[in-house]
Design brief:
The chain is of the alpha/beta class. It folds into three domains: 4-69 and 101-189, 3-Layer(aba) Sandwich (Dimethylsulfoxide Reductase, domain 2), CATH 3.40.228; 208-404, 3-Layer(aba) Sandwich (Rossmann fold), CATH 3.40.50; 482-629, Barwin-like endoglucanases (Beta Barrel), CATH 2.40.40. Helices cover 26% and strands 14% of the residues. The protein is built from 21 helices and 19 strands. The protein has a six-stranded mixed β-barrel with strand order 14-18-15-17-16-19. The chain has a three-stranded antiparallel beta sheet with strand order 3-7-6. A hairpin with a 2-residue loop joins strand 6 and strand 7. Helix 2 (28-41) runs antiparallel to helix 6 (134-141), helix 2 packs parallel to helix 8 and helix 11 (245-254) packs across helix 12. The radius of gyration is 27 Å and the shape is globular. The chain starts with a strand and ends in a 31-residue tail after the last strand.
């Protein structure tokens, strides 16, 4: 198997890859469009799969951008019949599901049907990618065009193959388009449900069937649903029933469109994860109540009115699954006076229901919620409810684990889309409106205009239609504009294996290994800005200034720097509360532009500058002996009582 790694860092994966593409952060979609153009231009795609199993042959009205439905032109056509241009008859023809071998659908061209200009979705995709030559993609992404071409050839020739995205592409305003781009590449190569590809439809009825069902539509009233901050403009968030972060911050700060009163937080240290952390601290000062649920105090706790100590995840019983095997995660020794988080939420909902909140009353009734969502009076009852999916109590489930959910030959099946559906007698196809994989995502247009399929109540449209094809958005801060002139380096970030998100910075053994935040810098950039190996440096963006220790390495792309999220529990009780010294998200960008569909802001791919500092931040610990106060203390032996 050959691999391509796209990352500005020379990671462990990159060291083993056949091609390393040290991309400029924030330009992934430009690279993806370059791949798409090359694959189409050189006819490297799986034409049979594209014609038979994608919606790219379907004709699109170029004015409305909507796919032409079969029943718009042909009597008796059902809702899975669409229109293609048949090359044999040189005319528009209905294409019933799943296919008609008597037709030869055109993938390219411009056609007139009943006076309407139409193009196949494939043609529109080709036009979208057309500007992105290897040379243009290389220039925009800071990559060698020959390396890009070598990577594309590996992807197309070493089949079956897959494109795997990581968190990096989720943390820029081009986030949803990166996912679209990845899907299109897999569609072009037919990488679905084959042995060896990532996109499979294994029968996930184990923990997935219990915990991932989403049938909450209608639980909120139309009025309440429309109060979700940012959800009118960024309707993709309705899939998770969440609000857009900057819209929340704006409401906290300005009181518009309504005043935010309380914040109930249940993550480790939110000030280490939100963009432009300082702006959030200012917004929090306008709240009437802040509650933090966590197992120990963090920077966020310093601003809370109440602390509710919860169990660590390994102190909690839970059901889990891995590749058709069901397991029982059983709690380790329970330390300190903590309770399960689910119990806290249930108590809050219970009391609110008693005070007259109707949805909180309904939240204890299974029929009124999604199957996985009702609250219970005890967590043990919740576990019994989950394991009832298997016809067992939690106690019985624990005793039986591990076990296979279904026979392996039923779980791991390939080419599910070609199987016969006993209800229709036709092949199953895919779980989409067309029954095909959708490279031209008309569903995004519908989502932006109505909120469907994520809402029961139609919403007013977003300010502009969502684009059915992937498009590239140049980072708003980049080396070529006015911001880049002042802040010439591109910042990216991510996780190191020592930590999990913003947790564990108070583990003495781990902090001995990594006591402070590092900034990875290419040697040429280090020399240019007067920084040497091991220097303390200032790192500054348009939003703030922090410090880090320089790690000068050729494993970092020139013009790019990297930092891991960090905070300092040792300064928790100081004026900084531990989040200001070395927290990369003091620097990140919470303002527009946002991703049109999901509202994502800029956590990576913004501009910074570095300069040598005179020393370390005040009060931080660097030496192993300084972490001694956090070491476990020997306690009195547990006394035994003879009965």
């Amino acid at each position: 198997m050959k691999t391509v790694v796209i990352d500005p860092r020379f990671t462990a994966d990159a060291s083993k890859a056949d091609v390393w593409l040290p991309i400029r952060p924030g330009t992934d979609v430009a690279l993806g469009l370059t791949w798409i153009r090359y694959i189409i231009a050189n006819k490297l795609y799986d034409a049979d799969f594209v014609k038979r199993w994608s919606n790219l042959p379907f004709l699109v009205n170029t004015k409305t951008k909507m796919i032409i439905k079969g029943n718009e032109l042909f009597k008796g056509a059902d809702d899975k019949t669409f229109v293609v241009w048949d090359k044999k008859t040189n005319s528009a023809k209905p294409l019933p599901f799943p296919y008609d071998d008597n037709l030869e659908p055109a993938l390219e061209g411009t056609f007139t049907v009943n006076g309407i200009q139409c193009k196949p979705g494939f043609q529109l995709l080709k036009e979208r990618a057309e500007p992105w030559t290897l040379e243009k993609g290389g220039k925009e992404c800071w990559l060698n065009p020959k390396s890009i071409e070598k990577a594309i050839k590996i992807y197309t020739k070493d089949t079956p193959s897959s494109v795997a995205l990581g968190v990096a592409t989720d943390q820029t305003p081009n986030s949803a388009q990166a996912a679209q781009m990845s899907a299109v590449l897999n569609i072009l190569m037919g990488n679905f449900e084959k042995p060896g590809v990532m996109l499979q439809r294994y029968e996930d009825k184990g923990v997935g069937g219990v915990l991932r069902t989403s049938k909450l539509k209608g639980f909120l009233s139309e009025k309440q649903l429309n109060k979700r901050l940012g959800s009118k403009e960024h309707k993709g968030m309705l899939h998770w029933w969440i609000a857009q972060p900057t819209a929340i911050l704006d409401a906290m700060t300005t009181g518009k469109p309504y005043k935010m009163k309380a914040w109930l937080e249940r993550s480790g240290n939110k000030l280490g994860t939100v963009a432009n952390a300082g702006a959030w601290v200012k917004g929090m000062s306008n709240l009437e109540l802040i509650v933090h649920m966590y197992m120990y105090p963090t920077s966020f706790s310093a601003y809370a009115d109440y602390l509710l100590p919860v169990t660590e995840w390994l102190e909690t019983d839970f059901i889990t699954a891995s590749f058709n095997q069901m397991f029982a995660r059983q709690a380790t020794t329970h330390l300190y006076e903590t309770v399960n988080e689910a119990w806290i939420w249930a108590r809050i909902a219970k009391r609110c229901g008693e005070l007259g909140h109707e949805n909180c009353k309904r939240s204890f009734v299974k029929a009124n919620t999604a199957p996985e969502s009702p609250y219970f009076d005890t967590y043990e009852h919740q576990l019994d409810e989950w394991t009832s999916f298997f016809g067992m109590t939690w106690k019985e489930y624990k005793a039986k684990c591990p076990f296979e959910y279904i026979p392996m030959n039923r779980f791991r099946r390939y080419y599910v889309y070609k199987e016969t559906d006993p209800k229709t007698g036709k092949v199953k196809g895919f779980n989409t409106p067309t029954g095909k994989v959708e490279g031209y995502m008309e569903s995004l247009i519908v989502l932006g205009r109505t909120g469907k399929p994520f809402t029961t109540f139609p919403q007013s449209p977003a300010s502009k239609d969502y684009d059915p094809l992937p498009y590239y958005m140049t980072p708003s801060e980049n080396p070529y504009n006015s911001v880049g002139k002042k802040f010439p380096l591109v910042m990216t970030n991510g996780r190191l294996p020592f930590w999990h998100h913003t947790t564990l910075r108070n583990i003495p053994y781990l902090r001995e290994i990594k006591p402070y935040a590092e900034i990875w810098v290419n040697p040429m950039d280090a020399k240019k800005y007067g920084v040497s190996q091991g220097d303390w440096v200032w790192v500054e963006s348009a939003r703030g200034k922090i410090q880090a220790k320089a790690l000068v390495t050729e494993g970092m792309a020139k013009g790019v720097v990297y930092m891991e999220r960090f905070w300092n529990p040792e300064t928790l009780n100081s004026a900084t509360h531990g989040w200001r010294e070395m927290n990369v998200n003091v620097l990140s960008k919470q303002t527009a532009p946002f991703n049109d569909i999901c509202g994502t802001y800029t956590l990576r791919g913004y501009q910074v500058k570095i300069s040598k500092a005179s020393g370390a931040p005040k009060g931080i610990w660097q030496k192993p002996e300084q972490f001694e106060p956090w070491m476990p203390k020997v306690s009195e032996p547990t006394k035994t009582v003879e009965l």
